[in-house]
Amino acid sequence: HRGGRGNTVENTLPSFAWGLIDGAATLELDNGITKDGVVVVWHDQEVTPAKCLDTAPVTPNDPDFPYVGKYIANLTLAQIKTLDCGSIRQHGYPMQLMYPGTRISTLQEVFDFAECADPQHQILWNIESKINAQYPNRTLGVDDFVQKQHDVFSASPYKSAITYQSFDWRTLIAMKALDPSITTSALIDDETASMPDNSTSSWLAGIRLDNFPGPSVGMQVAQAAHFINADVLSPSAESYQTPVPDPAMTGYVPFTTKDMVDEAHRLRIPVKVWTVNRLNIVDQMLDMKVDGIITDYPNVVRRSVKQRGLPVAPKYPKQRVLKCLEEHLAKQ
């Protein structure tokens, strides 16, 4: 998840390098699109002061400076490239390794680094479109995301290894229409599944879960993902309504349920849950027979999966990966 956010500053070349060293099977990352139409790797719609620092304006007296606090969609790649997004450790991730001076990468730059570290092209990818269906003025639109991401995917030797995921199901439908060969994954959680006032969610391409037979909400989620021809269902493991964070605690509320997983499997849809950062939830998900776990701590989850005798991905050679990281950071 974001390269292993618990261990290294997120969505950066260093985080992806350490994810490979730690034996992640799949690198999960997010895409935004700049004002000048470049696909960059970043989770947030805006450049947040909790993650990035301004250095200097790209040109003297640039009226957009400072850039921190601005939306990615309102900044050019040149402006974004001035930001230092490797010098702040997140409060929620106290073991996070920092890489001061690290820049936001383009998706192409991440692929270029990966080809160096992974010459046999074994890496799998989960690549998310960070489009805002609820507040469309904060990001570029569906057509921009789908076309520009697809252009980068198609030029990469990793194209067949990419799963395209999104909370905004419109992008999944549009990507399938553009290129049926692209694997799509339907992201969903409490906040996107339904609206508090019971209005139709803006995230699910006009679909209402209560139009599906269920009978449970979990089964309706699986049925809705099947309806849009998603290849993978990717739900939040826990509900945002849970008052406690762990299944061992009284009152814990999951979002991913056994009936959701079973119904997805009946419909021949694999289930890959996120973001699982507690081993009791790992155990719960493995007991439900999910097909993949997205985590901020790939090294820890890998050990747990291996302990159960389940297959794990090989670790990538540390020295080769770090050498490639050094080379590609220097290019930024």
Short description:
With 332 residues, this protein is of the alpha/beta class.
Plain-language structure description:
Residues 1-305 form the GP-PDE domain. GO terms for molecular function: phosphoric diester hydrolase activity. This is GP-PDE domain-containing protein. One of its GO terms (biological process) is lipid metabolic process. Pfam families: GDPD. This protein has eleven helices and eight strands. It has two domains: 1-131, TIM Barrel; 182-311, Phosphatidylinositol (PI) phosphodiesterase (TIM Barrel, Alpha-Beta Barrel). It has helices at 13-21, 77-80, 107-117, 142-154, 169-178, 190-193, 217-227, 258-266, 279-287, 298-307, 318-331; strands at 26-33, 39-41, 124-129, 162-166, 183-188, 232-235, 272-273, 292-293. Helix 1 runs antiparallel to helix 11, helix 3 runs antiparallel to helix 11 (318-331) and helix 4 (142-154) packs across helix 5. The strands form two sheets. A six-stranded mixed sheet has the order 2-1-3-4-5-6. A two-stranded parallel ribbon has the order 7-8. Helix 4 (142-154) links the parallel strand 3 (124-129) and strand 4. The chain is 31% helix and 11% strand. The protein is of the alpha/beta class. The mean pLDDT is 98.
* Low-confidence sequence ranges: none
What percent of residues adopt helix (DSSP H or I)? Answer: 25-40%
Derived from helix and strand composition plus strand pairing, the structural class reads alpha/beta
Please report the first level of CATH classification, the CATH class of the largest domain.
Alpha Beta
